[in-house]
Amino acid sequence: MIYEDSVAPLHQAGQVVLWDGQHRIDEHLTLESAPGHTPGPSVLRLASRGERALGRAADERELLVPAHFGGTGVVEVRRDGDRFALAPPTSFEAERA
Q1: Which of these, 25, 73, 80, 91, could form a disulfide with 85 (CB 3.0-4.6 Å)?
Q2: Rounded mean pLDDT of the chain?
Q3: Above 60 in pLDDT, residue 93?
Q4: How confident is the model at residue 94 (pLDDT cuts 50, 70, 90)?
Q5: d(CA 68, CA 89)
Q6: Is residue 76 within 8 Å of residue 86, measured between CB atoms?
Q7: Taking a C-beta distance cutoff of 8 angstroms, is the pair 47, 40 a contact?
Q8: Within 13 Å of residue 30, how many CA atoms lie on the same side as its CB?
Q9: Residue of 21 and 62 predicted with greater confidence
């Protein structure tokens, strides 16, 4: 039912792009196939001004909402030398006071 009333009309109108492997959306966004335990998973990669999304997330204290993470489903990205670490988000309340 979902395909017939939601996806099929878009496909018939030519508004659907079918892709396999990798699909570049624009200069900053790229979809990549990420095979897993279910068919069709993908990863959306973001790069801007030569930076990767994790670098910006760590520098700006932004939160990341990845798929298939337990707990709250939200993680904070932190720099760990030349790598990144994911951790439960810290409280932002102290900064607001």
Answers
A1: 80
A2: 80
A3: no
A4: very low
A5: 17
A6: yes
A7: no
A8: 13
A9: 21
